[in-house]
Design goal:
Elements lengths: L5 E4 L3 H12 L4 E4 L14 E3 H9 L4 H5 L5 E6 L2 E7 L9 E3 L2 H13 L4 E4 L6 E5 L2 E6 L2 E5 L1 E4 L6 H7 L3 E16 L8 E6 L8 E7 L3 E8 L7 H12 L5 E15 L3 E2 L2 E3 L5 E2 L8 H19 L9 H25 L4 H13 L50 E2 L2 E2 L8 E5 L5 H8 L7 E5 H4 L4 H6 L6 E4 L5 E5 L4 H11 L6
Length: about 500
């Protein structure tokens, strides 16, 4: 590999995904990680949402969706009684999520990276300083000096040195209580497809316990424990026995950690972009950590590619901060509300939670709103049009609108989303002349662009009906599968203006 176009700091799932995306865009990538080698221990981040699985499939890693376990039922308990249960809608070409250990996810992504000649990974490279100038970024790892036009920092929540070098603050707070995590392997008939959330069980009074099934008869158990908790082998065994009784089990891995709620003051500083836990930390209820870090990587990758290939001006990179910082704030808001219910910090909050649980008011019990793609409705790249319906009910997706991610659905020969991510995609109703649109839009940019008629993709009309697309509409889809514009009564000039806006091009 020659000189890198982008240095990615951090070889976790977010950095791995970013490297694969950048390489897919034809860019040489150098990945740096401060660890001496890959540490494949523990479940850590276990829940990958459908849109993340879709992206990994596009990168040649379909095994994550295939190997992961999708539980079907969520049961919620208060003390010794079940309050309610609910199930995911499992319809669709991909599962709504899977449970798969981060260790296995990293193995799968590593295999894809090893097959990609544009990516080089260097371990034992701790970044000690960053310096920028008009031509690029100098990255120092002790005495070693590296350079690239751009840097994407995916170095995790403890990357204080990287943030300090950029002058970025990491404001927020940490929760006092600790959480004990154990991966347990056991034969538990009837538990394989059920997630259990226990409020105030007699074997963890005043706190919560969450039990997730994972592949290979493994279960992830999270106990909320006091700030001074001492994770001795005897106490861990006692806690497990309180759940499993006298069943045989194997303790595979354990860890104790504290939840944080923090966000970087900037996610773009000149030629350096921050992504994943390096830019934001949230409590894990709702699985909004990895499932927001991977969209960070995708958003950054297509914009870096557009700038480096000359398809867009450098000011496009500022919209990375605009869009993903807003997404991080949304996640902080959602997870903050969850943590205020799970760990109320005031007598009034504790009384409210006790009242809600005693009444079994399912609609008021907040154990986490599951991760969902952020909607770029207010982005400068989005052309206003069809109104956004607002945040949908829990477990549902918003109807298609500018800024929302394109719904995935089955089409003849595959899935709709498989047509995305190679560049921009223009979907046309039957009243639009595709050859004329292609001719006009080809004059706007040299960025990859595919123009497809909905009737050509699916001659039955089912696709247009699923999307709610009118015969005279044009839908412009970004390389990250988000809808940039839905243009009614569309003409080629309207579509060209939307494409210019989506790339921050100056309209002549």
């Amino acid at each position: 590999m020659g000189s890198p176009a982008v240095i990615v700091i951090g070889a976790g799932p977010v950095g791995q995904t970013a490297a694969l995306l950048l390489a897919r865009w034809g860019l040489p990538v150098l990945v740096l990680d401060q660890r001496p080698r890959r540490d494949l221990e523990g479940s850590r981040s276990i829940c990958q949402q459908r849109d993340v699985l879709d992206l990994w499939s596009a990168l040649g890693v379909p095994e994550a969706a295939e190997e992961g376990l999708t539980w079907t039922t969520a049961r919620t308990y208060y003390r010794d009684r079940e309050l309610f249960s609910w199930s995911f809608d499992l319809r669709g070409p991909l599962p709504p999520f899977v449970n798969l250990s981060q260790s296995r996810t990293e193995e799968l992504l590593d295999a894809a990276i090893a097959a990609q000649p544009r990516i080089e990974v260097r371990w034992d490279h701790e970044v000690t300083d960053l310096e920028q100038d008009a031509g690029g970024v100098t990255v120092r790892c002790g005495e070693r000096v590296l350079r690239a036009p751009y840097v994407l920092a995916c170095a995790g929540g403890r990357a204080s040195g990287v943030r300090r070098a950029l002058g970025v603050t990491f404001d927020g707070h940490s929760f006092d209580d600790l959480f004990l995590i154990c991966d347990i392997r056991a034969d538990l008939p009837g538990w394989e497809n059920v997630r259990r959330f226990h409020f105030d069980p007699e074997w963890n009074p005043g706190r919560q316990v969450l039990i997730h099934p994972c592949p290979d008869s493994t279960y992830r158990v999270d106990w909320q424990v006091p700030p001074d908790y001492d994770a001795t082998p005897d106490d861990i065994s006692r806690k497990i026995r309180q759940i499993l009784g006298d069943r045989e089990y194997t303790l595979v891995w354990q860890s104790v950690y504290r939840f944080h709620s923090r966000i970087a003051s900037r996610m773009r500083v000149g030629r350096v972009l921050l992504a994943g836990d390096c830019a934001h930390l949230v409590a894990p209820f709702g699985a909004r950590g990895l499932n927001s870090g991977v969209p960070d990587a995708e958003n950054a990758a297509w914009k870096l590619a557009a700038v480096l290939h000359g398809w867009a001006p450098e000011e496009l990179l500022e919209t990375y901060h605009d869009e993903r910082h807003a997404a991080a704030l949304e996640n902080l808001q959602v997870t903050g509300a969850t943590m205020r219910f799970l760990v109320p910090g005031t007598p009034a909050g504790r009384a409210h939670r006790r009242d809600v649980l005693e009444r079994g008011a399912a609609e008021e019990i907040d154990s986490g709103r599951f991760a969902e793609p952020y909607w770029y409705v207010d982005s400068p790249l989005t052309t206003p049009g069809r109104p956004f319906a607002g945040r949908p009910p829990k477990g549902q997706s918003p109807p298609p609108a500018p800024g929302v991610i394109l719904p995935d659905c089955s089409i003849p020969g595959g899935r709709l989303r498989e047509l995305c991510r190679a560049g921009f995609l223009l979907l046309l109703g039957e009243m639009c002349d595709s050859s004329l649109f292609a001719q006009i839009l080809g004059k706007v940019t040299t960025a990859p662009l595919a123009v497809r008629e909905l009737a050509e993709i699916d001659g039955t009309g089912a696709l247009a009906e699923t999307l709610g697309a009118a015969p005279d509409e044009a839908w412009l889809i970004r390389p990250d599968a988000h809808i940039a514009a839905i243009i009614p009564h569309a003409g080629p000039d309207d579509a060209a203006a939307a494409l210019s806006r989506a790339l921050r091009l100056r309209v002549q």
